[in-house]
Amino acid sequence: MVSSSHPAATFAGARVLADGGNAIDAALAMAAVTWLVLPGQCGIGGDAFVIVREPDGRVWTVGGSGYGPDGATSDFYREQGLSAVPLDGPLAVAVPGAPAALAALHANGGSRPLTELWEPAARMADRGLPCSAKTAGDVSLALNAFHADEGLASVFAAGGMAPHVGHRLCQPDLARTIRRLAADPQDFYTGQFAEQAVAALQAGGAPFSGAEWAATGQVSPAPALTGRYAGATVHQTPLPTPGWMVLQQAALCDGVVGFSPWLSAEAIDRFAGAARLAFADRLELCGGDNTAVSEILSAQHISAQRDMLARGVVGAQAFTVGAGDTTSTVAVDSEGRAVGFIHSLAFTFGAKFTVPGTGVVLNNRLGRGAYLFPGHPNEVMPRRKPLHTLNAWLVTDDDGDLLHIGNTPGGDGQVQWNMQLLSHLLDHGLDPAEAVSAPRFTVFPGSDADVLGSPDELRIEAALPESVRDELSARGHQIVVQPAFGADGSAQVISRDERGVLLGAADPRQEGVAIGVE
Q: How many CA atoms lie within 13 Å of 6's alpha carbon, on the beta-carbon side?
């Protein structure tokens, strides 16, 4: 079974499984198709993270995120009169980690050549795909910035206008790049592509040396972070992802939320408090290359925070959640191999900057993720990866058998909605369709670098009963009501029941579907 946020991507994965490929092959095929059907949310020039459960129960991860420029320091930006790393243009870019992650994923379990898995996507790029409503909306959001970039303007803003739904978007430059990388992924980091990218960024004022590109291309599998929730083991992607934040919230909610009625004010109050504590710890303690996570997840720290929640002393925080643009997929094959994959350009169309002649849009992860706070573990610094919003998870029982695998895009909402999904599935026994479509709530603020300092809110979709919202207001939450299905995110979940039957669902908040294959 496979699930993604777009039917064409899901179908690509299902076709690979039907042809005898495994879940890793399916994830790789779906990744390439999403570059085309969700171009504002992901791409070759972004980052990617993977979590894999093998048929023998072993769980491993791949982390694909990159360094900022070797010349990037807080002083570099301040000397240009900047108070934060920019969100658009060359100065916003970190070296993309997605190609390295995909190559590592393929090398550690792919059964089909990348040239075979990615050729369908290359053909789609050559002949063009009809523009979807999601892509048309994403282009409209970023349109003004496209006029400064010929590569984006030529594909997505011909005549200076956003494309209409159904307009065919041809990307021959991207088709050539896909084929080139399928044949040799390391070309992205040490070959001709790397030279082109570094030259374009240097011309735009970004202090890349080229050595940080080569360093980013070296990726190896790593163990997952693990925790417990509702009698099951939760596996998460490690730093620089915020997977630890899901495990922290799980430890703070375990044995409490499951004993409250589903989506009651009492349960939501606990979720919100746990999320605020996790974001506070992230802002104070965490960077992409430090060891504060072990302290945060320690029994002593969790016990002290559970006591704070029980006493009701968790207050508002002075930072904010940003939605972000990301997309995710899940795949499970007939052998029990399960793959959760998530990739992103950070914000919509990333830095709105392409490598000329390649069709590759570069991310703005450095601008989104790194701080200019002196001495902070997430301060921008050479060979330091900025903190991430992407994470992916899976759940096993005490015998190591797969129970659930899932993920969702949504910036700093991800760690909150993933915690909600875990509770829906493990505390209340919801099936995947019920879990991904359940009313969503989000503490605002979180910790994105560009929006520190917004007022505290608890954003709740209107499908949650008014009586629950009123009780939350009485508990001191500043409630902001969103339309039903109006929150961000596009969750994917596949579950395995006690009979070994797979159940899957894609979030109704986007255009995705799940498909099972006999």
A: 25
